[in-house]
Predict the structure.
Amino acid sequence: MPLVVMQSLTSLVSHMFFVFIAFWALQALKTDVWIKKYHIPQARTLYILISIAIGYTVSNFFIDFILSIQNLFFLF
């Protein structure tokens, strides 16, 4: 497999993994206090968008961290 395909698959899997982890972790928050009555669809949409934002950010951090470690090996 070409390197570009492997990097793309790795980043997709990483992004999805961390989005699911963020979604799972956000379920520990008591958000029913913040939600207005009869605004459940908007709250669910916000919940998903926050999960995507957190998961994507954490995934990018780990991908950049791994790439930085790989680049350190090129120095030696």
